[in-house]
Protein 1
Amino acid sequence: MTKVVVGAHYGLKDWLAQRITAVVMAVCTLIFVAVLLSGGPITYDSWKALFTKGLMGLMPFLTLLFVVSALIHAWIGVRDILMDYIKPTALRLAFEVVTILWLIGCAGWAVRILWRL
Amino acid sequence: MPDLTAKRRRPLWFNLSPLNLPVPGLVSIFHRVSGLLLFLGLVWFLFLLDMSLSSESGFAHFRSYVGHPIVKVAMLALLWAYLHHFCAGIRYLFLDIDRGVDLSTARRSSYAVLAVSLALTAFLGVKLW
C-alpha cells in the first residue's frame, strides 16, 4: 500500500446518510402501503386528496421527506456503482455530474407535480 | 529468436465462478442491480405520477396506460426491484448492527429476503391488478 489513510470518518457521513435515508423511506413506504390497502377503490378525487391532505395533512410533508431521502440515497448508491466499474477519472466524473443533474431534475419534477395540486 | 514460450496450447479456463455464487452474494448483487433499476425507473415513475395527478382525464389516461400488458410487466419488474431492495436493505441494516452475521443465519436470512420479496411482489401485483 502506497497511500496510508490516516484520520477518521472517511466516508462515514455518506455511509450514515445512506442508512438514515433508507430508514426514512422504509417507514414512508410502510405508511403509504397501509393507507393504500386500507382505503377503498381509488378515484381521481381520493388520489388527489391523499397527496394534498392525506394522513391529517401530513402526507405532503411525508412525500417531500421521501423525495429528499431518495435523492440523497440514490446519489450515494449510484456514486458507489460508478466508483466500482468506471475507472477512468474523467469519464467517471462526467457520469457523476450527469447523475447529480439528473437527480436534481427528478426532484424538481416531483416537487412541481405536488406543488401544482 | 525462437519462441520458447507457449509450446503447447494452454487449457481454456471457463470462468464458472458465477455458478458458485453463494446466496448472500446473490442477494448482494441483486441489491445493486435493483438499486440501479430503481434509479433508471425513477423518471418513468415520475411520469406516471404526473399523469395520474394532472387532471381527471389524465387520471383516466393513466388507468388505461397501466392496463397495457407491457406496462404491467415493466411495473411488476420495478415493483420487485423496490421490494427486493427494501427487504435486502433491512437485512443489511441488521448486519450493520452485528445481528445475524454468523454464516448459517446470514444464509437463512438471504433465502428469506429472496422469498419474501418475490412473495410480496406476487401479493401486491395481484392486489394492484
Protein 2
Amino acid sequence: METIVSLVATGVGKLIELIPVWVAASAEKKAEIEAKTRSLVAGLDALFSAADAKDDAATQAARDAIAGK
Amino acid sequence: MSAFKRTITLLTLLTLGGCGDIMSSYYKSVSTTAIAAVTCRDVLSVAHEQKTAAVVEKAKTDKAGAQVDLDKWLPTYEKIKTTCTGLKVGSKLALEAAPVVEAAISKKKDAMGWIVRLGKLVFDAYATLAEAGIKIPGVN
C-alpha cells in the first residue's frame, strides 16, 4: 500500500511538473497559429482586388470583341 | 468522397486537433475559411478567364451568340463572386471577433458557434461552385 501511494504521489508530482511545459507549448503554438491566420486574412483584400482587376479586364475584352473593337 | 464529407472531415480534424485549446481551434477554423475564400476566388477567376476567352472566340463568327453566352455567364459569375466575398468577410469578421470570444466567460460556446458558422459558409460556397458546374481542384 505504501509503495502504491508513493508511486501515485510520484506520478502526480511528475504530472504537476509537466503542466507548465504543456501550457508553454500550447501558448507558443497558439501564437504561431494566430500569427499565420492574421497574415492569411490580411492578404485577402489584395488578392481579391487583383482578381477583380483581372476579371474586369477579361470581361471588357469579351465586350470589345462582341462590339467589334 | 464528396466535397461535403471531405470538408466535414477537414473541419473535424482541425477542430479536434486543438481540443486542448479552443482558441487554437478557433484560429484554425478562421484560417480554413480564409483558404476557402482564396480557393473560391482563384477557381472563379480561372472559370471567368475560360468563359470570356470562349466568348471572344465565338464573337469572331457569331456576335449575337457571343453576347447571349456572356449575358448568361455574368450573373453566375456575380453570384459566385458574392459567395467568395462572403467567405472573405466571414473570416475577417471572425478574426476581429477573436478578442471578444477569448475574453468571454463562455468562450468555448462562442468559439464553437463561430466555428460552426464559418463551416457553414464554406459548405455554402462549395455548393454554389458545384451548382455552377465549377470544379475545385483537389475537392471534386
Protein 3
Amino acid sequence: MSFLAPLFFAALAGLAIPVLLHLTQREKKQIVRFPSLMFVRRIPYQSVRRRKIQNWLLLMVRMAALALIILAFTRPLLNSTGVPAGVANAREVVVLLDTSYSMGFGDRWARAQAAAREQIAGLTASDRGSVVLFGSGAEIQLRSTSERSRLQASVDAAAPGPSATRFAPALKVAGSILAESTLPKREVVIVSDFQRGGWRGEEGAKLPKGATLAAVPIQGPADKPNLTVTGVTFTRSFFSDQQRLVVTAGITNRTEQPAKGGTATLEVGGLTIATKPVAVEGGSSTSVVFDAFTVNGRNMRASVRLSDDALAFDNTFNFTVSPIEPVHITVLDRGSAASALYLTRVLSIGESPKFEAVFRQEDALSDEDLRRSAVVVLNDIDVGPPLARRLARYVEQGGGMFVATGSRARWPQDVDTLPATIGPPVDRTRGDAARVGALEYGHPVFEPFRAPRSGDFSAIPVYGYRNLTAVMGAQVLARFDAGTPAVLERRVGRGRVLLWGSTLDVSWSDLPTKPVFLPFIHQAVRHLAGYTEPEPWLTVGQVFNTSTVAARGTAAQRVVLTPSGRRLPLDDEGTDVLELTEQGFYEVRGDANQSDAIVAANVDPAEADLTPMDPREITAAATEGEGGTDSAQSGVPLTPEARERNQRLWWYFLVAGILLLGADTLLSNRMAKA
Amino acid sequence: MAVEIHAIPGARFMDPTVLARIGNLELVARAVVDGFINGLHKAPYFGASVDFAEHRGYVPGDDIRRMDWRLWARTDRYYIKEYEAESNMNFSVLLDVSKSMDYGSRGITKLDFARILAACLTNLVHHQRDRVGFVAFDHEVVEHVPPSAKHMETVLHVLERITPGRPGSLKEPLHRLAEHFGRRGVLVVISDFYEEPQSVVDALSPLRFRGNDLVVFHVLDPSELDFGFSDAQPFEDLESGEQMPVVPEAFREEYRSLVRAHIDALTQAFSAVRVDYAMLDTSKPLDFALFRYLNSRAKTMKIR
C-alpha cells in the first residue's frame, strides 16, 4: 500500500490533542476545599504522576477516529492492479486503417493491409481488437472482439475509397471504443500514409488517459508521377439558338517526377469528345482546353479522364453540363415606352441567368404567359379584381410577383395577396427628398449590398412614394426615412410577392439611374424565381440536398441511384440530405423512372498531395504527451475504474472515522449522565 | 465506686447527621443525655461532703472541726475525716472554632459535631449540678463563658452562634487560658489538631498545671481519615487558602499512613502526660464519645 498524500501524516501529531484533553480536562473541575493540606504537602509531588488518563475507552475511540480520518486524507492506494494476473496485461487494441484514396498510390495499400494484419496477429487470447476504417469519416468495421480471424477478414475486405484523409474523426471513434473498455492496457494503432492535409491541429481528438498511440507510417518515395484533375471551367457560346461549351481542365502533377506521354480525354454522355496529350513537369500544373461541343440536353454527364498513373482515383473528374435556362418574366405595363425603359434595359442584361422578359398590358395577359413565367412584374398598374385573382392564384402555385407602386397602382381590397395595403401617394418633391434606409441585409435581395461600398441606397432621392401599411405575415425589408415601409415581402402559398413603394422609372425616384438598380432588380427577380446557380460537381464527403431538385413525383416514388448502382429511396421519413460517399454520378429519379437531377461527385484533389507529416504530432496532441508513441508504458496502466477501485480505501477510512466519532458522542453522553 | 456503662436507649442510633438537623442544641443535648442519672460522675477531688472517703493523720493547720473524736477516743491519736468532694466541680469545654473545623463531607461538619458533643457534655455535667463553662478559640480566644452553675443556657447560646472563620493555632490561646483556670476542674478540648503532635501536647500541657483534669477529643471527618476522593483536582487549604493539584489515587495510601501516624503520635504523647485522648469520627454516633468520656472518668476514679 502506498499513499497519494503522505504529507497528511503530519496531522498524526494531532492525536496528542485528545490525550492532552483527557489529562487536563479533569483538573479544571471545581476546587476541593480541604481542612488542611498538612499531610498532602508532605507527599512528594510529581507532576507526571498526577496526570492520569481517566477514560481509556473514550480516549481510544477518539484517537482511533482521528487516525482513521487522517488516514483517509492521505489517500491510501493499493498497489495491486485488482485484476487477475492473466488479465493484467490484456490489451484493448484499436487498429485505425486509412482507406483514403491516397492509400492506392503504388503498393501502399498492400503494405498497409500487411501492417494491420501484423498488429492483429500480435494480439493474445486475452486481448481484444477493433478495426476502424477511416477516410474523411470513420467507420467501425469490427468492435472489440478477441476473434483474430474476423479482424483479419475485415482488414482483407477493406479497400481504399474515394474519401480524403481526416485523422480526428478516427481518433474520436477510437477514443470512444477505449473509453468503454475495461482492459488495463489500451492502445491505438494508426496505419496510414500520414498526409499533411489530414491533420488540422488538435480538433478535440483526445484518447482516454493512459491510452497509447502507435503510428505505423505507410510511406515511401513518390517515385512515380501522379497527375490530378483539379477542376474544370466552362466557356459558353451561343450559336443559332444552341449553346456550345468549351471545357478547360486544370491538371496538376504533385509528385517530383515529370509526367510525360499521358493523355487527357473529355467524355460527354458516354462519347469521347476529344483526347489531348498531357505533359506536366514535377510539382507544376497545366491546363488542357478541349474542343467545343454542343449542349443539347439537361444534366449531361461529362468526365475528364487521364491516362493511368500511380494513383488511379484522381485520374477521373466528373461534372454535369446543362444548357443555361433563362428566367422567364412577364412585365405588366400600361404600354408606355418611358415607364418600361429602364426595366427593359435591366432585364436584357445578364448571362447567368439570362432573363427573358415579355411586356404585356394588363388586359393582354394570357394564361400561357403566366404558365411560362417564373416572375410577373406589375409596373405601376391598376389591377382589377379578376386579374388580381388570377395573379393571386399564380402566386399561390409557386410564381413570383414584383409590384412597383406609382401614382396609378391599385389593388383590390378583397384579394389578400400583397404584403401591404397601398395607401395614398406621399409627395416629397418639396423639401428634402425621401431616402431609403433600414435595409434588411440578411435578406437575399439586399445581401449583395451588405459589405461596405457595395451600393448605397440611402443616396437615392425618392420624390414620391405610396404610403404602404404592412399586413400580417409580411416582412419589411427596407423603410423610407419617415418610417413607412419601402420594400416588403410576403409568402403566399408556394410563391412570393415583393412590393416596392415607388416606381421603376424616373418619375418618382432616381433609382433607375443609380448603380444599385441593376443588382437590386436582378436579385429580386432571382429570388422571386427561386433561381440557384447550378453546381456542375460536388466533392466526395459533401452533402447534396435532394429537396432542391424540382420534383416530378411524390416523395415516395423518388430514389437516388448511386455510382455503384445502389438505389436509395427518398421516402417521407428519409432525410433530404444525402452524403456523397462514392466517386461518379448520383442520379435522382422521380416518377416513371425519369431522371430529375444528376450530381457529379469527385474525389478531393487535395488528397493527391502525398506530402507526409510527422506522426508524433498526432500522438502528442491525442495523448497529451502521456502515452508515448509505440513504446508500451512501463508497468501496467490501469483503467480509471481500476484506479478508482484501488484508491477507494480512503472512503472506508473516512466512514469508519465518522462512525467512531458518533460512537464517541454516544459514549461521552452516557458517561456524563452517569 | 465503679461506673457501669450501659447503652443509652436510642442514643446508639443517634446519628450525628440527624442530630445536626434538630437545630436546638438544648433539645439535642437533652435527648442525648436523657437516661443518665445523677451521681454517675464523681469528682476526683476530696472536699467537704457527706460521703466519707477515708481517714488521714492530723497535721498542724487542719481544721479541728473535721477531727474524728471517736477514733481519738479509741486510739488516742488524732485523725481527720476525709469526704468525697461531689459536684461543685468546674467543667469547661474548650472548642476549636478555626476554619478547618468547618468541614464535613457526610452532611455534618466537624464543628457541628463538636457543637453537639459540647452541648451533650455540658448538659450531662449540668445534670450533676456542676459548674459549666465554655471557651471558643482559634488563634485567640473568641468566646469565653466562665464556669458557673447558672451558665448552662449561656453556654448553649454561645455554642449556637459561634461561626468559624479564622485560621487556628493552639499554643497562643490555650496558654493564655491555662492562667484563667485556677480552680481545679475538668477541661474538655475539642479540636482537629492540625499541628505537629508535640506542639499539640505542648500547647495543652499547661492546662493541667493547676490540677485540671484534661479530656481531649480529636474530631475528624471520614474524608480526612480515608481520603476517599477519586478525581484529580486542585485542593485548597481551608485556613491558609493555599492550593495544590492533587491526584487522590496516587496520594491516598501515603496520606492515610501519615494521618495514622499523626493519630498514633498524639495518642502516645497524650498518654505519656496522662491526658485522656480520643479520636472521634464524625460519621460515628455520639454515644461513642460520651461513653469514651465517662469511661475515662471511671478510670481516673480507679487510678486515684
